[in-house]
């Protein structure tokens, strides 16, 4: 991004592979609001990495900049060693994204949308058709394949966007709130798919508010608040013997000690 950063990010000492994602000095403001205030982060290749933080912490802004959707004010990002902002096409080929709040082509059917994502990635038609079939089946969307995405529920929309993110079998999946609005059976299926993907060498980054899920599913976590990284590392190291939820509250604070809303009590 700036001339002070290298175009390639090398493997760390003792490793042959660069991290799946490296972030240095990432910063973004919106008017007077500093959303991301100089974040550094390394996501090891082959990890299942969670980004957690309170509402407004800067998670979506950081992930948007890390994946080439939002231009940073300062800092640099590399995906598997490739500079996202200097070599966007090369970097984006390596990634699958489930962004938060980005409009889909919702006048397509679910099947058309996922096929379109595969064809855009340069895949041949037969492979696209085969993978669309598999993805719709495993995400329990086969019966709604011909329904327009605009008529999907929130959870169905999340699942079809996830299918579109995965169809080209990327090396890195970046998923902003992948389980939001998704029913428990579909969530369990998605967890199995992601765990399998990680055990075969892929890397997943998820943002989530569900600490229990992160503790069970992920091996690494970064806690972000106020645009800063408060803690990052393996889940075990970050939670330090406490539950991740307790550690999160300790790090982030903000539990409300007042007597609550007296006027809301019915007796
Ligand atoms: N386009 C924008 N214009 C102005 N302010 C923004 C914009 N996008 C984000 N912000 C602000 O930046 C801060 C970080 O927002 P962000 O969406 O990154 O937080 P988050 O951690 O993803 O939150 P949540 O958990 O609620 O989704 C917030 O204060 C938000 O109001």
TrEMBL record:
GO terms for molecular function: ATP binding; ATP hydrolysis activity. One of its GO terms (biological process) is response to antibiotic. Keywords: Antibiotic resistance, ATP-binding, Nucleotide-binding, Transport. It is found in: Cell membrane. Its main location: membrane. Coiled coil: none annotated. Residues 21-251 form the ABC transporter domain. It is a peripheral membrane protein. InterPro entries: AAA+_ATPase, ABC_transporter-like_ATP-bd, ABC_transporter_ATP-binding, P-loop_NTPase. GO terms for cellular component: plasma membrane. PANTHER family: ABC TRANSPORTER ATP-BINDING PROTEIN, DOXORUBICIN RESISTANCE ATP-BINDING PROTEIN DRRA. This is ABC transporter. It comes from Arthrobacter alpinus. The lineage of its organism: Bacteria, Bacillati, Actinomycetota, Actinomycetes, Micrococcales.
């Amino acid at each position: 991004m700036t001339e002070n950063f290298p175009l390639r990010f090398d493997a760390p000492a003792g490793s042959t592979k660069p991290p799946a994602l490296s972030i240095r000095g990432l910063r973004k403001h919106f008017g007077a609001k500093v959303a991301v205030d100089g974040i550094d982060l390394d996501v090891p290749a082959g990890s299942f990495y969670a980004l957690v933080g309170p509402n407004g912490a800067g998670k979506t802004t950081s992930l948007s900049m890390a994946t080439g959707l939002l231009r940073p004010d300062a800092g640099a990002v590399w995906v598997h060693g490739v500079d996202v902002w200097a070599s966007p096409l090369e970097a984006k080929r390596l990634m699958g994204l489930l962004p938060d709040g980005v409009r889909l082509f919702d006048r397509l059917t679910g099947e058309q949308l996922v096929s379109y994502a595969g064809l855009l990635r340069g895949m041949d038609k037969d492979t696209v058709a085969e993978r669309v079939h598999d993805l719709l089946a495993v995400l329990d969307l086969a019966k709604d394949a011909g329904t327009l995405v605009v008529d999907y529920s929130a959870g169905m929309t999340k699942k079809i966007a996830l299918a579109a993110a995965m169809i080209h079998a990327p090396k890195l999946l970046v998923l902003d709130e992948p389980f939001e609005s998704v029913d428990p059976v579909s969530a369990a299926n998605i967890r199995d798919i992601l765990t399998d993907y990680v055990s075969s060498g892929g890397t997943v980054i998820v943002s989530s508010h569900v600490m229990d899920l992160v503790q069970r599913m992920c091996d690494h976590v970064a806690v972000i608040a106020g645009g800063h990284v408060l803690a990052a590392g393996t889940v075990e190291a970050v939670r330090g013997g406490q539950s991740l939820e307790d550690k999160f509250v300790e790090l982030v604070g903000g539990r409300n000690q007042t007597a609550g809303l007296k006027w809301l009590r019915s007796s």
